[in-house]
Amino acid sequence: MNNSIQRFNTPIDLAQAATVTILQMAEQAIAKTGAFKIVLAGGNTPNLIYQALSQAQAEWDKWWIFWGDERCLAADDAERNSLMAMQAWLTKVAIPSEQIFPIAAEHGAQQAAQAYAQQIEDYLPFDLVLLGMGEDGHTASLFPCHPHNVDELVHAVFSAPKLPAHRVSLSVKTLSNSETVLFLITGASKAKAFKLWQTGVNLPVAQIQARKHTLIYADDAALAQF
Ligand code: 6PG
């Protein structure tokens, strides 16, 4: 397991460091290829980072935005991962709308998963994938004891233990098909799963390995048992 773990005192310290890391990786990718392809994490943890990015200077016209997973809710539902990122960041900077690819989960898990697989195929590999982790060691919408066809680029999820039950998730293969993966993990509720992960339990979070760098940013509370 070649993960590099960086510890932060607070979620705010972590968010500041992650924002700098993301902007640096964007500059490097754009200098190399003229584009920066980033996959966004859902849940609450990345919100501070998205807010900070909304205040940053960057070559926004060269950013391409994708999501790692989505909840099968109406597009304007406040619990949608896409809406959270839009409101916190994407509507406040000049990223061309044709370079922003939300998962159309409002159409149902199966249809949305198939459509998104076709949509992202030509953009692989990504430059950076952001991921959170749940208390049970899930990441994106890949949950423990939920088998999937490993060859799929994108999975339809129908019985997620974290509501809503219907979701769409990029697969382990697709989330790993990135130059860098950056895990963002805060809070005491994540400490048990973090320890299990780092002591070799094959949780979904443990199955993601980037092409080059798998980075873990975690705060003291999440690392309390490690
Ligand atoms: C989702 C997320 C999920 C999330 C973790 C952590 O749609 O729910 O993609 O994988 O990242 O559950 O969530 P928090 O950051 O809110 O703790």
Please provide a written account of the structure.
The structure is a single chain. The model has no long low-confidence stretch (mean pLDDT 97). The chain starts with a strand and ends in a 7-residue tail after the last strand. The protein is an alpha/beta fold. α1 crosses α2. 28% of the residues lie in helices and 22% in strands. β2, α2 and β3 form a beta-alpha-beta unit. Bound molecules: 6-phosphogluconic acid. The site of 6-phosphogluconic acid (6PG) has 15 residues, from β4.
Keywords:
7-stranded parallel sheet, 226 residues, single chain, 22% strand, globular, binds 6-phosphogluconic acid, 3-stranded antiparallel sheet, 6 helices, alpha/beta
Alpha-beta classification: alpha/beta
Shape by Cα distribution: globular
Helix content: 25-40%
Work out the helix count. 6
Say how many strands there are: 10
| Topology as a string of helices (H) and strands (E) | EHEHEEHEHEEEHEHE
Order of the strands making up the biggest sheet:
1-10-9-6-2-3-5
Report mean pLDDT, rounded to a whole number. 97
For the record, give the distance between the C-alpha atoms at the N and C termini, rounded to a whole number: 15 Å
Largest sheet: 7 strands, parallel
List segments where confidence is low: pLDDT < 50 over at least 5 consecutive residues.
none
